[in-house]
Design a protein that fits this description.
Strand 1, helix 1 and strand 2 form a beta-alpha-beta unit. The chain is α/β, with parallel strands linked by helices. It has 9 helices and 14 strands. The protein has helices at 24-35, 52-58, 85-97, 118-127, 157-163, 186-197, 214-219, 231-236, 248-256; strands spanning 6-9, 39-43, 63-65, 70-73, 76-80, 102-105, 110-112, 134-135, 147-150, 167-173, 176-181, 204-208, 222-225, 239-240. 32% of the residues lie in helices and 22% in strands. It is globular and about 55 Å long. It has an 8-stranded mixed sheet, sandwiched between helices. Pfam families: Hydrolase_3. InterPro entries: Cof (IPR000150), HAD-like_sf (IPR036412), HAD-SF_hydro_IIB (IPR006379), HAD_sf (IPR023214). This is Cof subfamily protein (Haloacid dehalogenase superfamily).
Length: 260
Amino acid sequence: MSDKKIIFFDIDGTLLDDDKKMPLTAEKAVFALKEQGHEVAIATGRAPFMFKEIREQLEIDSYVSCNGQYVVLRGEVVATTPLNREALQAMTDLALTHNHALVYMDHLNMKANIPNDELVEKWVQALKAKISVGYDPLYFQGRDIYQTLLMCTEEEEPFYEAVFKAFDFVRWHPSSVDVVPHAGSKAKGIREITSRLGIAEENQYAFGDGLNDVEMLMAVHNSVAMGNGCDEAKAAAKMVTKRADEDGILYGLQKLGLLS
């Protein structure tokens, strides 16, 4: 096993604050870690095309994306776990009867099955990113889809959970829930990277804030929840740092002894 350390960072609410801005201290911290010879990677619910600018800004080419379903190590795709196509077709058919839109996401693009859906527009606005969702109700056919967004309320979600055992549902927004393969998570994607690099558990670190970070924060030996994180993330982590907009990344790394 290598003595090298690896640090995984979530994006929204972790590297980026609530205004989707990256504090300068967070950017400098990433480069300081790399200068010390550590591996730095991203672990996010976003698909690769949704954080290309961030990867370029931080000069990071290893990442766990789509909540663990599309994993890249040093620019090379090392693991993919697409959604079951038959189950996705069935969920599409059922969702349409309830007028619940879906957004199908692969590594290159995302398309909605209902045009100009109000909840889809709200989700895009919440991201505050330079992205748009096109319309293609058949986008999921004949290609691998790594994550789907289902536009429904928290009250409506258990109905889908009961029917579709091939999927896990992870809510991150009042009107949207992430749909991923059953047992798929950032933690599983992280294991794909750490096993290939031969990095010991005690040298693995992760920062996150949301419900989709809980498995990661429970699984990674040195886990840190952001001060702005949800209660579940804080309970799962070994340590809680300050908020993202209060230099939480730098503060957490200092508390861990990785930066001075």
